[in-house]
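Retro notes (design track)

What went well: tokenization of the new backbones is finally stable.
What didn't: we kept losing track of which sequence belonged to which structure.
Fix going forward: every design gets posted as structure first, then sequence, in one message. First example under the new rule, 590 residues:
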């Protein structure tokens, strides 16, 4: 992965209108944060091929407001060619969300960076209105810059610049050095994911009401493409099941296949896109609402048949029940067994810890991370607690083990309780590493997949997500996107606006690929020692960015010597078979 060599300060003399510095991705700079003691004025990055890497530039107007401030990035020139900035470098204006209350004991109220408005968006190629920037005097404004290293890029050192202009005149050139390692990451995630997305809510947020099926298909596919570019697969989507005849025996899959097919067969991202050929790692089985188990029987069979014919069956699951209470387990088990009677290849998923009363009905266990380990010194948080070793028999029989984080990481409206310190979290005001650590932990504990209930939960609530994404006591819980409406962001077309947290989740998924490649290429001890160095428990891990980046750099150097290109990602392979400081530099190693 790419990282920064942080050179000495980019702070200018008093007669200069702008103070600026650079920093890495694991920094959430708020508008009134002080200038760092040793601010940086250059960027040094490391990356594999087929990988994204972000860095940040922080700008501050000195004395008075300053309009017409802009940033561009040059092509990156290397020993055997260049990495063109066009299509490979995306520049984002970092917007701030005002949080009225903290999410947890680790959070804080105030203005926090999260939405990322692109200079030119990746989906339509339209220029948006965030640039040029009007800088407010005495307030920080961050610019997030994301570099993608194309799959065919030769290894070596590439150099270029980020150019700051004021009123159209050149102001500063920030040196960028990119080291490309001699291996590539797979396009398809090796860690399965299934993050919820509500297409109907998206249409209503973008257009004020449900308009038509064409709009929902277009929006869902755009958001789903964004998710896939962040190594994430979704469930939900349009939520529309295949059309059926009245007898329930003949299905029309045409609309469904148009919506979902390109993501499952790997054609949505072409050789002209990042992550070419990436495939969704999961797909959810959609049933019509309010039918009995007997009425659902032909639906199960048709889904299995269609997915088998398409070669997608290994990725299909049925979301049997979400967080069932123990007293409902009997009914949940009955429903799961009914699905198996309809077709034994139906794979039932339940967000619950292992419980013997559900055995035989559940094919994919998805416990809450809090129910995986008990935190010493506190009463049990979960009704059911099952450690990793308890799943041995289920895994030996072919069952799956995923997990998920929820408001239980920050407290679900409980602020100040020490129990909720240290858990991985996707909240806006969580420590940056908290947004990125869960995938390291997934590798450490042998977890096959990650589920998240929603990426746009606030879209379905009253109000505008740009004003508030506070849900379940957490700032940003269930919402990793913002609605990119032209009235707010400029341009002519509606697009997804991604969050810093979504970018950090992708960083974590890329970290997972490093660990997984190490384990496949005779570097298992390095992967094991790296995961142990960064985390001792799910709730106890190193919050320091420099620790994470140092481990990442060590693995990247080792993999570069091995040349890990061409290794098949474990998720695809499995499913195809079965279902120091100097005068010039302060370095934080990746």
């Amino acid at each position: 992965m790419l990282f920064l060599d942080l050179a000495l300060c980019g702070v200018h003399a008093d007669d200069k209108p702008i103070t600026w510095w650079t920093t890495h991705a694991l920094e959430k700079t708020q508008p009134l944060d002080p200038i760092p003691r040793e601010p940086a004025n250059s960027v040094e990055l490391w990356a594999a091929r087929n990988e994204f890497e972000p860095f940040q530039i922080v700008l501050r107007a000195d004395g008075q407001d300053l309009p017409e401030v802009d940033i561009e990035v040059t092509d990156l020139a290397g020993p055997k060619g260049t990495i063109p900035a066009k299509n490979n470098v995306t520049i984002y204006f970092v917007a701030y969300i005002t949080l009225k209350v903290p999410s947890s004991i680790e959070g804080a109220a105030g203005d926090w960076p999260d939405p990322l408005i692109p200079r030119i968006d990746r989906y339509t190629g339209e220029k948006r209105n965030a640039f040029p920037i009007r800088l407010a005097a005495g307030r920080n404004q961050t610019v997030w810059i994301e570099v993608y290293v194309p799959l065919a890029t030769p290894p070596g050192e590439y150099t270029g610049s980020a150019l700051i202009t004021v009123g159209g005149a050149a102001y500063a050139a920030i040196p960028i050095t990119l080291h490309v390692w001699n291996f590539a990451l797979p396009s398809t995630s090796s860690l399965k994911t299934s993050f919820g997305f509500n297409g109907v809510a998206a249409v209503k947020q973008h257009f004020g009401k449900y308009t038509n099926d064409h709009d929902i298909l277009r929006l869902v596919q755009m958001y789903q493409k964004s998710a896939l570019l962040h190594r994430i697969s979704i469930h939900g989507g349009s939520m529309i099941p295949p059309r059926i005849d009245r007898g329930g025996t003949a299905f029309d899959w045409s609309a469904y296949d148009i919506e979902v097919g390109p993501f499952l067969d790997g054609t949505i991202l072409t050789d002209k896109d990042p992550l070419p050929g990436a495939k969704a790692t999961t797909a959810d089985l959609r049933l019509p609402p309010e039918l009995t188990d007997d009425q659902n029987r032909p639906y199960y069979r048709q889904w299995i048949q269609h997915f088998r014919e398409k070669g997608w069956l290994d990725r299909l699951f049925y979301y049997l029940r979400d967080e069932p209470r123990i007293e409902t387990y009997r009914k949940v088990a009955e429903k799961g067994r009914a699905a198996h009677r309809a077709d034994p290849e139906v794979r039932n998923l339940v967000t619950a810890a292992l419980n013997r009363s559900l055995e035989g009905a559940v094919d994919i266990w998805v416990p809450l991370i809090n129910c995986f380990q008990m935190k010493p010194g506190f009463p049990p948080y979960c009704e059911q607690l099952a450690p990793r070793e308890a799943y041995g028999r289920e895994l030996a029989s072919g069952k799956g083990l995923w997990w998920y984080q929820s408001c239980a990481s920050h407290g679900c409206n409980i602020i100040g309780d020490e129990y909720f310190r240290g858990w991985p979290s996707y909240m806006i005001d969580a420590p940056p590493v908290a947004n990125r650590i869960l995938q390291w932990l997934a590798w450490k504990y042998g977890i096959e997949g990650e589920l998240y209930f929603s990426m746009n939960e606030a879209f379905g609530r009253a109000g505008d997500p740009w004003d508030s994404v506070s849900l379940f006591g957490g700032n940003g819980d269930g919402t990793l996107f913002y609605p990119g409406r032209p009235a707010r962001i400029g341009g002519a077309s509606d697009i997804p606006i991604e969050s810093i947290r979504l970018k950090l989740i992708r960083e974590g998924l890329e970290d997972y690929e490093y660990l997984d490649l190490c384990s496949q290429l005779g570097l298992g001890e390095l992967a094991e020692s790296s995961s142990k160095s960064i985390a001792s428990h799910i709730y106890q891990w190193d919050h320091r960015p420099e620790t994470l980046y140092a481990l990442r750099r060590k693995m990247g150097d080792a993999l570069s010597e091995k040349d890990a290109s061409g290794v098949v990602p474990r998720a695809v392979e499995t499913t195809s078979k079965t279902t120091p400081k100097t005068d010039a530099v302060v370095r934080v190693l990746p």
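Added context from the reviewer: The first helix runs from residue 199 to 207.
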